[in-house]
Amino acid sequence: MDEKRRRFEALAMPHLDAAYNLARWLTRGGAEADDIVQEAMLRAFRSFDGFRGEAVRPWLLAIVRNCHRSALEQKKRHAAAPLDDRDDTEIAADDPTPEASAIRHGDGRELNKALSTLPEEFREVVILRELEEMSYRDIAVVTGTPIGTVMSRLARGRALLKAELTGGSHDV
Amino acid sequence: MTCDESLKTQAYLDGELDAADALKAEAHLENCAECQALAADHADLKAAMAGAPYHRAPAALRARIGAALDAEAKTEANVVPLKAPRRSGFWLGAGSGAGGMAIAAVLAFLVFMPANNAMVADLADAHVRSLMGEHLIDVASSDHHTVKPWFAGHSDISPPTEDFKADGFTLVGGRADYVHGTRTAVVVYRHGAHVINLFAWADRDARLPGTSSRDGYRMVFWKQKDLDLAAVSDVDPAELDRFVDLVKKSQGRE
After folding, report:
1. B82 pLDDT higher than 60
2. Where are the domains of chain B?
3. Is the dihedral of CA B12, B15, B20, B21 positive or negative?
4. Which of A35, A119, A157, B203 could form a disulfide with A126 if both were Cys (CB 3.0 to 4.6 A apart)?
């Protein structure tokens, strides 16, 4: 293993789980998460020479997020099928343990369904905050938006998600 | 109806406030029914999300990525030895005597000048295109923490992205561009009414002209780490030189 590869293994690879988890949630549990993560890790490796000292995780997750975004755009451009046509079947393959299902809103499937109703810009900040437990500053890095925007999107996203999960009125 | 303080309250609930602001937020929370409802929702959602599955990367994917990285590392490693002997072997050999040096200089001129001219022309074109309005910036931000990761996801190059606002050169964003058959990362700065495009691309051992000008635009070229850089602008030449010095110094700090 050469020096760059070793450095990448030591600094970036420990965040592979975070990268995968993010990709899974961003793609609504879709199978394309694998390809997105692989593409992201390769891109990260190629630009690793220019990477100096900043926090690795937000940097890496920003790349995952961007790969997801380009995959989404490509799909929109090439495929005629609307994105929302596929969810329940793929998500069903993602069954959590029976214990987790017992928690009414903690169920991955229900959460996935509720999350998938959110517009992309709200969905991603909620995922990064609630599931990746990132700071506002890191979320700003990942999404390429100012912190103020992160805060307002987070507030709106949470309100939308809460309404969706409680199945209550949508007039948030 | 949302309370004006709701984003502050949210930041408090997320543990994003310092001690002084947290005290203020707590005091507000005691008297604001709306923010109390927000806090309750916040706790509910936290509990709901706590049961969400965390997806760890499957072993097969991990292995696949490891293999892909090994292959990539090997490809990159193979590119270097191909270049290195030519530079140290051929050029040093050719340049071992004064006559050899002269020959090398003429060869360098003949071999590299046409390419340089094309590169200079293409850079000038790219600069002008960017000023026509449709494609100056892909990511608009004065925060280099934002611009830098954007490049990581959109180009294979990580250019210097520091803001030099205090020195009169404001970072306004970045874009990915294709110049002279090469993928480049472009960092965009403003200096008064002038735009400076800072092009960066992977060093391929090509000679760079130093400075050049075309169509009234001045260009300064230099190498920095493993990147080739070119600053292009119609700004006053002395100012462009000052800008280039700032970029060079910023790289020393990184």
Report:
1. no
2. 6-43, 114-253
3. negative
4. A157
Q: What is the mean pLDDT of residues B125-153?
A: 76
A171 pLDDT more than 60: no
- Taking an 8 Å cut-off on Cβ atoms, the answer to whether B62 and A16 are in contact is yes
Q: What is the ipTM of this complex?
A: 0.77
Enumerate the residues of chain B whose CB falls inside 8 A of the CB of residue A16: 57, 62, 65
Taking the CA of residue A77 and the nearest CA in chain B, the distance in Å comes to 18
A12-24 pLDDT, tens digit each:
999 999 999 999 9
- For A16, which residue in chain B has the nearest alpha carbon? B57
Q: Which of B203, B202, B191, B238 is nearest to B218 (CA)?
A: B238
Give pTM, 2 decimals. 0.54
**CATH architecture type of domain A1-94:** Orthogonal Bundle (1.10)
Is 3.40.190.10 the CATH classification of the domain at B114-253? no
pLDDT tens per residue across span B175-203: 888 787 778 899 999 998 888 999 998 87
- What's the order of all strands across the beta sheet hosting B227-233? B139-140, B170-179, B182-191, B194-202, B227-233, B217-224, B211-214
CATH class of segment(s) A97-172: mainly alpha
Could A41 and B150 be called an inter-chain contact, meaning their C-beta atoms sit closer than 8 Å?
no
Contact A62, B152 (CB under 8 A): yes
The residues of chain A that CATH labels 1.10.10.10 are 97-172
Q: Where does chain A hold its CATH 1.10.1740.10 domain(s)?
A: 1-94
Q: Are strands B227-233 and B211-214 parallel, antiparallel or unpaired?
A: unpaired
Distance CA A158, CA A123 (A): 9
Q: Do A1 and B145 touch (CB under 8 A)?
A: no
Q: What is the pLDDT of residue B14?
A: 94
Cβ contact (<8 Å) for B157 and A47? yes
Decide if B55 and A8 are in contact by the 8 Å CB cutoff: no
Q: Mark B196-226 as b/e (b = at least 16 C-beta within 10 Å).
A: bbbbbbbeeeeebeebbebeebbbbbeebee
